[in-house]
Amino acid sequence: MERAGRSSTLGSSDEVELEPSGNSATIHLDMTAGGGSSSSDFNPFGAIDDVRFKTDDDLPDVMVPPFFSKYGDFHTIDWQRDLARDRLRHKMISKKKVDFPLGLLQSGWDAGAGWICVLFVGLAAGATAGIIDIGARWMSDLKTGVCADRFWLDREHCCWSSNDTFYKDDSCSAWTKWPWMINYYNSSSLLFSFIEWIFYIVWAVAMSTLAVLFVKIFAPYACGSGIPEIKCILSGFVIRGYLGKWTFIIKSVGLILSSASGLSLGKEGPMVHLACCIGNIFSYLFPKYGLNEAKKREILSASAAAGVSVAFGAPIGGVLFSLEEASYYFPLKTMWRSFFCALVAGIILRFVNPFGSNQTSLFHVDYMMKWTFIELVPFALLGLFGGILGSLFIFANIRWSRFRKNSKMLGGNPIYEVMVITLITAAISYFNPFTRKSALSMIQQLFDRCEDQVEEDSLCDQNKALSIAFGQLLWALIFKFIITIFTFGIKVPCGLFVPSIGMGAIAGRILGITVDQIFRAVQATPGHSEYFTCQIGKDCVMPGLYAMVGAAAVLGGVTRMTVSLVVIMFELTGSLEFIVPTMVATMFSKWIGDGISKMGIYEAHIELNGYPFLDSKGEYPYSTVASQVMRPSIHRQVADEMSMSDLRELKNELSVITESGMTLGDLESLLRQTDFNGFPVVVSQNSMHLVGFITRRDILLALHTARKTQPYVVTNSIAYFSDGVPDSVPGGPAPLRLRKILDMAPMTVTDQTPMETVIDMFRKLGLRHVLVTKNGKVLGIITKKDILQFMRNKDSQ
């Protein structure tokens, strides 16, 4: 038994759904011989036990398709019921194959609906990502100037379109800086730099303010990364409006603005949210998925893969991300559809070509070298650093997010918070060449190998690398780490992948420069080993490789991804040769991070927001049984030691419905006096032997429909949840048959069942609740939130 809202422990979102298994009901009249009275048999089609047939031949000739099971906001779906409804729907369509040609066409359409749906999702996701990339790149360059002749071009394309034969940051005549727009051309003066700095800050603050205003006014769910909520939704949680069209539109526009503002955030995480919005919208074109929440999550899993595919240009990594990190239910057919969806999205992104490089890999590298075994030591050190830095970031960000959530000043003024953080970020970032440019440009520069034609780059000038670039990189790492703690979680679309990759790339480049200098020092000493004899800068130490490995290490330390992360980094850079160094750093990062804290950043935010997410990768560390976790709880002693007085008290706390003897008025009174979302049906109040389970909304719909359509059903009508319905008295109230809305096979466990077994049932079967019994008698109920609440209480002790 469950409450609609347990204010003391569970809040407003509980695990037994209020909604019925179908929005429509059918009242079957069974006219009796006496006096023209009738007995009403209520049957909302679609519940697991609504229709029971022994064989396919028992199916009626005319069957109404299962109705849409609409769940309430912040509730959990019933995986078993929805999948059973889909099997029943499939049986109905299979029987129509004999009706040539319409039945055959309908069957073929039903079989291909999933593939067509993910095709549409892939097409839309690729196009959306291309538009966002182009828009964000153009608006990001607006902070420094504009292409006077072709204002729609970003800086790089503007310079390519000019007659300049060589493009460098400060030598493009086609790009007009903002001081030039106000007729001030003395670029060597301090005033010129000050004007540039002011324009840089004003544009950044204006973009982020516009983004937060859009989010606050039109779509509050468009803020943040979205991955924690997507993980919960894919596990069966319902958040109305989170995947709606307004969320999609506002998050797309807001993502362009927020990423262009220069805030320490990325657009890769929100792209997963946007792709899932697309999947949710297109699923309603196919009732097979749009009207079945469990089946819809197959489309959403494929959409999540497409989101990562277009975010990083990594189709295979997207499929593995959906499998490892996002999805809760991932059958083999979903993996194939996810692969197809990610493939289509990647092809469309390649066709749009938002970066103008004709490559799908975001940071393509071409290292003409081989790594040596001795370098595994610094690679492992990068993994160690990534695990520590990631754990520190999670701890600090969760503390700040909790403070923001509980503070009226910050929580009630998201616009001011965004403006202040943007102001600080822009004002400080401008003075460091690595933080001034966009995060993607910085990461690409850190990944690149040094060539003779770019000697102007301080990273490749050995005379400046230690004195200037080293200090700038160190300052950029410290600043990005601190500012990202305060940025992740503000009320604008913001992801964490790119900031994590950026911090790791900086740390890796710093280590790469250090190792390079060590090799140089060893080579300079007479009599050094031939092992250290190599051509410096070409095939001995490549600092860009260390940046790539460091990026994977820090991202792994923050998110605790492993297999999918390695594949994403491989597809991100196109460097197959360096998978082993990336794997070494990722595993060390995972080990160190898990040793400090078991949760990644997304799991930590799920726990902070109180979502009912039972992580399939987690373990239950307590030796408890079902009777210790169930509600109503037994505080005095375990179930097998309860006295008769304890059993009577428990029976009084447990609201149940008897299978016969309760009138319609009794049921309505019970619904008014309690706020439980469901009720066990028992033989009698004395025996408490379990008959089945019924949800609150099923009863409400049944009683409302019976009163509305049947004049003989009155307050004194007896409700029967069994087959043994006596004949009605002529002229008296008609009995109400409610057996067909009763779940006759609810999931049950005994009071001494270990909680490890109960949790496995929740994880693998997607249960919403399980009844606890003793010798066939109902004792209580366990929901997903009961388990999570019990674990939180144990952790706090």
UniProtKB/TrEMBL annotation:
As for membrane topology, the entry says: Multi-pass membrane protein
Q: Which GO terms describe its cellular component?
A: endosome membrane
Parts of the chain that traverse the membrane: 112-132, 197-222, 243-265, 271-287, 299-323, 335-352, 373-395, 415-434, 473-490, 540-559, 565-588
CBS domain location: 650-709, 742-797
Task: Write the record's keywords in alphabetical order, separated by commas.
Answer: CBS domain, Chloride, Ion transport, Membrane, Transmembrane, Transmembrane helix, Transport
User: Which ranges are annotated Polar residues under compositional bias?
Assistant: 1-12
Q: Where found in the cell?
A: Endosome membrane; Membrane
Q: List, in alphabetical order, the Gene Ontology terms for molecular function in this entry.
A: chloride channel activity
Tell me which InterPro entries the record gives. CBS_dom, CBS_dom_sf, Cl-channel_core, ClC
Q: Where is region (Disordered) located? A: 1-30
Please give the family membership noted in the entry: Belongs to the chloride channel (TC 2.A.49) family.
By what name is this protein known? Chloride channel protein
Q: Which organism is it from?
A: Caenorhabditis briggsae
